[in-house]
Write a structure and sequence with these properties.
Distance between the termini: 51 Å
CATH class of the largest domain: Alpha Beta
Number of helices: 13
Largest sheet: 10 strands, mixed
CATH topology of the largest domain: Rossmann fold
Number of domains: 3
Oligomer: single chain
CATH architecture of the largest domain: 3-Layer(aba) Sandwich
Radius of gyration: 25 Å
Length: 465
């Protein structure tokens, strides 16, 4: 049973009172809403009307359909209609709501699933709380603190080689056929965070039910908040999901000093929605048919990651799917300039598992915590393991090209298989100290102390050969 269901049958009078109060407030606000009935132009996704006193990003309804202001040129206002414009007449009623998208925030968000507008989709009641605008500016840099706290995910390929720090922003780069949703779900369940906020964009119903069932069965709903746009919903609605997630994250991080982890999947589908809107507004596309504003649109989201002086933090991990592994595409290319590293998923054919690729993955902030927030031997173990894994890659190239292997080459290949299976595979869930102990065991099994090349004082303490 979901957390909101306990005692729900006793809340009926209260809910009816809230509904009556909401209808009363709606009647009051209608007097201040601006209503128009003459549409000047209609495209596949937008309409244009002449109006005064309208703000950018203001919400509206067009013939009862949700819409948002996306362009203002003098008195000509262009609205993006989320479900599309099919069937809308030029005399349809356009009602401006006088405010941008909003979300009610409170502890009642926890354990709940919402759509792109912040409306419950799990059958539970409406949320009571403080109404806040979504999509506001990022935190002023002078209010940010240097990230210094470890955020462990339980996934060895991340915590050992690409350790994450609270307040960091980092993407998963993965091919569309790789199990990135399973990885994100594992991170959500294993991460040492107070609140996990999931943003699903273009998610299949199977994936949505997978997340929902997994969190419920794991008993983790009390710290999960999810905003989901499925493939059955209009693609343009995906543009609202990150802002909803980050508004909820800012509430918990600033009001409760919580350590918040935001998981966004899939940012490629978010960017595709940007492209849809841009093309239907007849804007000239940039590289790979993406809008020229792609960099700033992505940066506006990722820059919400922050470590606050009072103790709260927002850490963002986002999936960016690649088209045929093309890292030069505009979406991953722009993402790489904004974020502080990247995590690559790769299928290792030698062990028939998906691993965190140690060569292409990088956490640029890991130096702030490894060896200080983790065991002192962490930096040297990490570097040594990668070096030996690289020697194995060179040996594999020699083998594929018909060259004879040395005895050392053979040992590195055996080491690489075991290292991938026991530490890089995405299904490895152990504590960081156990990761380090596993690496030391592999060093002693396949190499001599001289070949490992770690400082003598560290070797004396941890060597298990």
């Amino acid at each position: 049973m979901n957390c909101w269901q306990n005692g729900y049958h006793n809340q009926q009078p209260k809910l009816l009172t809230l509904k009556a109060r909401g209808e009363e407030e709606l009647m009051k606000t209608k007097a201040f809403q601006k209503i128009y009935t003459k549409i000047e132009n209609i495209t596949k996704a937008t309409c244009t009307i002449e109006a005064e006193g309208i703000a950018n990003e203001e919400m509206a309804t067009v013939d009862g359909r949700p819409a948002q202001v996306v362009k203002i040129n003098g008195n000509m206002i262009t609205l993006q209609i989320f479900p599309g414009t099919q069937g809308i007449a030029t005399n349809a009623e356009v009602v401006f709501l006088g405010k941008p998208p909003t979300l009610k925030v409170s502890d009642e968000l926890k354990g709940r699933f919402f759509d792109a507008y912040g409306q419950p989709i799990d059958g539970g009641p409406e949320i009571e709380g403080t109404e806040v605008e979504v999509g506001g500016p990022s935190v002023n840099p002078v209010r940010r603190k240097q990230p210094s706290e470890l955020i462990a995910t339980g996934i060895a390929g991340i915590d050992l080689n690409n350790t994450l720090v609270t307040g960091q922003k980092i993407p998963f780069f993965a091919d569309s056929d790789q199990p990135f949703n399973a990885v994100m779900a594992d991170v959500a369940l294993r991460a040492e965070a107070d609140v996990i906020i999931l943003g699903g964009m273009g998610m299949s119903n199977d994936d949505y039910l997978y997340y929902k069932t997994l969190f419920d069965n794991a008993g983790a709903l009390d710290r999960i908040v999810a905003f989901v746009n499925t493939t059955e919903n209009p693609p343009v609605e995906r543009l609202l999901v990150p802002d909803m997630c980050l508004s909820a994250a800012e509430h918990f991080a600033t009001e409760q000093q919580a350590k918040v982890l935001v998981l966004l999947t899939d940012m490629t589908l978010y960017a595709d929605a940007l492209s849809i809107v841009s093309n239907r507004m007849d804007q000239i596309p940039s590289k790979d048919s993406m809008p020229g504003s792609l960099y700033s649109d992505l940066a506006r989201i990722y820059e919400k990651a922050a470590q606050y002086p009072d103790g709260g933090s927002i850490t963002i991990i986002a999936v960016t799917t690649l088209s045929g592994g093309d890292i030069t595409h505009a979406i991953p290319d722009n993402t790489g300039y904004i974020t502080e590293g990247q995590l690559y998923l790769r299928r290792d054919t030698d062990i028939a598992k998906v691993i965190i690729d140690p060569f292409r993955s990088l956490s640029r902030l890991k130096q702030l915590v490894i060896g200080t927030k983790t065991r002192a031997d962490h930096p040297q173990v990490m570097n040594t393991a990668i070096r030996l894994y690289a020697d194995a890659a060179n040996a594999k190239t020699k083998l594929e090209n018909g060259f004879d292997l040395t005895e050392y080459d053979t040992r590195t290949l055996d080491f690489a298989k075991e290292y991938s299976r026991d530490l890089l595979a995405i299904d490895i869930n152990i504590e960081i100290d156990a990761m380090l102990d596993t690496a030391w065991r592999l060093f002693g099994k396949y190499f001599s102390k001289d070949e490992v090349g770690i400082k003598q004082e560290v070797m004396d303490k941890y060597w298990v050969g």
